[in-house]
Amino acid sequence: MPNQKILYITTEMYPYQEDTNLAAVVNKMALKMHQEGNDVRVFMPRFGQISERKFQLHEVIRLSGMNIIINDLDQPLIIKVASLPGERLQVYFIDNEEYFKRKQYYFDDEGKAFEDNDERAIFFARGVIETIKKLNWVPDVIHLNGWMSSFVPIYLKTYYQSDSYFKDAKIVLSLYNEKDAPLASNVGEKLQFDNISGLKALDNPSFESFVIESMNYVDEVVKGDEFLNGELDKAFNETSASKSEYLDVDSISKLY
């Protein structure tokens, strides 16, 4: 069904990241939907490894300049945009010097998870939501990929609950076998600042616990990897949300 507005929120996408299933799947889904005549936008973090020169990223001044308060600190939101190489498909990048300039994704050179991964995820989620509203573009489908994107439905159904902007959008969550890591033990205090509390994920906060939590806030859960690891597979089998086994890219339009 063409002419849908489809928003992909992802932590990875080929060619900005290579050699991961997540990056490849998002690229294929977004391109297929774009080529079938849908209005597709992609949002992702502007990690330091993504070359602005190579991929011709440029700042969108009219969208930048907002401040997002994280843990009582004002963090400036910078929006950059590029077209997917060889395609007229727009990819928006959420940027901030404090959170996304570093060259590594979630772990330092010793393999230790960054202490501010929770704040980075909150900033990314709120940054995407605020930018979509500023674009005045209302998606029909929001498709989430990657652990950071799991904060988006949690925010939409709590902090933004009274905001009617996204009320008709259907939310799809794809599950992937990502490397797990703990999040800061005080992430609950930071979410409490936005009046979010009572999440089961806060009992033992981690990348995976928030992905599992977000299943409670979406319309459809899909396997992004054909076979899921332990806790993720268990949560998939137990979720009361509508769910779908692994889909090849050709079947994704049926889901929408």
Your description of this structure?
The chain is α/β, with parallel strands linked by helices and 256 residues long. It has one domain. Helix content is 29%, strand content 21%. The chain is built from 9 helices and 11 strands. It has helices spanning 21-35, 52-55, 97-100, 117-135, 151-156, 187-192, 207-214, 230-238, 252-255, and strands at residues 5-10, 39-45, 58-59, 67-70, 73-76, 78-83, 90-95, 141-145, 170-175, 220-223, 242-244. The strands form 2 sheets. A 9-stranded mixed sheet has the order 3-6-7-2-1-8-9-10-11. Strands 4-5 form a two-stranded antiparallel ribbon. Strand 1, helix 1 (21-35) and strand 2 form a beta-alpha-beta unit. The model has no long low-confidence stretch (mean pLDDT 94).
Briefly note the structural class of the backbone.
alpha/beta
Main sheet strand line-up: 3-6-7-2-1-8-9-10-11
Mean pLDDT across every amino acid position: 94
Instruction: State the helix count.
Output: 9
- How far is it from the N-terminal to the C-terminal residue, by CA? 8 Å
Topology readout:
Elements: E1 5-10, H1 21-35, E2 39-45, H2 52-55, E3 58-59, E4 67-70, E5 73-76, E6 78-83, E7 90-95, H3 97-100, H4 117-135, E8 141-145, H5 151-156, E9 170-175, H6 187-192, H7 207-214, E10 220-223, H8 230-238, E11 242-244, H9 252-255
Parallel strand pairs: 1-2, 1-8, 2-7, 8-9, 9-10, 10-11
Antiparallel strand pairs: 3-6, 4-5, 6-7
Summarize it.
Keywords: Glycosyltransferase, Transferase. By secondary structure, the protein is an alpha/beta fold.
